[in-house]
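User: Good morning. I'm curious how pyridoxal-5'-phosphate would be positioned relative to this chain. Could you predict the structure with it bound?
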Amino acid sequence: MKKDAKFATRAVHAGESHCKETGALRVPIYQSSTFVFESAEQGARRFAGEEPGYIYTRLGNPTQTALEKKMADLEGGEAAIAVASGMAAVSGVVLALLQAGDHMIASDTLYGCTHALFAEMLPKWNIEVDFIDMTEISNIKAAIKPNTKVIYTETPANPTLTLVDLESLANIAKEHQNITTVVDNTFMSPYLQNPIALGIDVVIHSATKYIGGHGDTIAGIIVGPQELIDIIRMTTIKDIGGIIAPFDAFLLLRGLKTLTVRIDRINENAMQVAKFLKNHPAVDKVYYPGLPDHPQHELAKKQQRGFGGVIAFELKDGLDAGRQLMNTVNLCILAVSLGDVDTLIQHPASMTHSVVPQEEREAAGITDGLVRLSVGIEHVEDIIADLQQALDQLV
Ligand SMILES: *Cc1c(COP(=O)(O)O)cnc(C)c1O
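Assistant: Good morning! Here's the predicted structure, ligand included:
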């Protein structure tokens, strides 16, 4: 592969080499817990870090290495580590970067379990977290304290699709030597947005979503500077143990090969579905950064290469209408998660974000009537026809 190969080419080829021994096209699933040393001396050299090579799968595995190389390449970072889940990625990063007495600034709209980790668990270790509205960039500047070590955000945010200006955020953080910026890039995948190119230090993915893409794996990825990834690998991942299984690493390598074709189709479908929803009389509001009247449409065009597949919308009759809608769709599947080839529909207030207290939910725009749709790769006319028959029953 040429060094300047385009993204779609890198998604297929980066990080992988054919097996020299067998000629196998695909990276094998190295289903082995441990690796054999040729001698006691070699084992000692490997443990001392004086000789490259595998030791034990909790410390690394060749299938995992191929995935990590591919993801570092696609996100434009120095190194990556693949882990057991998106939450293992979130906790692995913040626990490596923060210690008792430190302060973190986080967005007020975050994935529900990320919010729970930050609001309920981190304070147990005397780590202080302030949740702020980062759509207004001056709020970030105002929240920085002498002990601020991390600024953490998601853009577009789950589930309200609000955006944070990543370049401005990175510039503010760079004025302070001790601050590391972390972005959860799950909604965009590396194909649609690369925070590191905008000056962000660390990128996190729930690889369960677009990277896997087929609803069959839970996994996470962290991409960032080599030094930090080495620390995470040898501390929070090695000692807390949220490692990826070789088979899951294989599924993600496979998922990444079709990332661009899946997302091209998803982008087209989602745009048409968003326009359809906007014109339906049962729908009050549609939140999709691809619509020209989305308040951050210009920012989306600036920092993203597409608008993605997640749409949030509000029904005129609120919660009851939402419940009825979810019980009358046929093709759209009632399930949490997103980024799959199938179109999924869910109700954040009672499902993914039920762990966030109601008051905080509403302050972050997650009303009881909000419905989240993750548009899949089915034929768009079938997706729209299904939503139409269900929505028509509400008017
Ligand atoms: C799903 C999700 C997570 C958590 O990922 P898991 O793989 O379920 O642990 C984190 N962030 C975002 C934005 C998500 O959508």
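Residues 85-87, 111, 114, 154, 158, 184, 186, 206, 208-209, 218, 220 surround pyridoxal-5'-phosphate (CB under 6 Å). The longest helix spans residues 259-278.
Let me know if you'd like a different ligand tried.
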